[in-house]
Amino acid sequence: MVVLDHVNKHFGDLHVLEDINLTVKRGEVVVVIGPSGAGKSTLCRAINRLETIDSGTIEIDGVSLPAEGRPLARLRADVGMVFQSFNLFAHKTILENVTLGPTKVRRLQKAQAREQAMALLERVGVANQADKYPAQLSGGQQQRVAIARSLAMRPKVMLFDEPTSALDPEMINEVLDVMTDLAKDGMTMIVVSHEMGFARKAANRVVFMADGKVMEEATPEEFFTNPQTSRAKDFLSKIL
Ligand code: ADP
Ligand code: MG
Questions:
Q1: Average pLDDT in the 201-227 region?
Q2: So what's the pLDDT on residue 67?
Q3: What is the DSSP letter of 120?
Q4: Which pTM was predicted?
Q5: Is the minimum distance from the CB of 40 to ligand 1 under 6 angstroms?
Q6: Residue nearest (by alpha carbon) to ligand 1 atom 21
Q7: Which of 24, 60, 71, 103 is deepest in the core (most CB within 10 A)?
Q8: What is the ipTM of this complex?
């Protein structure tokens, strides 16, 4: 579903992505973990084409990342992204947040979009908040709406960039539970997160990044119990 082949990117002198090779199969859940500055967010942004790359290729479902125009809009719709900050439209209701993309980009009829949105809000457990505005919801609820909004575009793959790191501790699990359900339903997911419980429960693979490189790839069990590189050991000793 997602294939990165010899991907390189620089920010000036900084080699932020260095020869990244990564394959994520349909239905697979990959958790990306690593210290701050490793290039994890840049990796997500490159996959969603929010950042260009200098060399190498990125394919989504067999299609090479197009440069611009309509194919790019199409590709963006295929790749859902949920960020640390919830990024909901503040002046739209919860329901409008979820219907906007499908009516504008997917050209869904209003009634259909509304029906789909209510089903998705139900799925993430906030259907009863549909007529409220984002500021009236808790962080955990807002993040679940952000997930519903992404799903409304019927993406082929979902990227999550530290989706729970801005949340109060008691709200982390309600978001992780939604993500775990999504994983069980067979969604292809790339998740930047240091939540080990989630990785153990939902991930097929953990990818450890540092200094712009993929340093290790292993099952969660292998990675957390027997990391191979000193960088990973050092990192784990700090977060455990
Ligand atoms: P992570 O998400 O793993 O913390 P990032 O991908 O955000 O890492 O950043 C990797 C490195 O690239 C960091 O050193 C960061 O300062 C740098 N960086 C990120 N975005 C930019 C940018 N737009 N311009 C210049 N440097 C950037
Ligand atoms: Mg980041």
A1: 97
A2: 58
A3: H
A4: 0.95
A5: yes
A6: 11
A7: 60
A8: 0.98
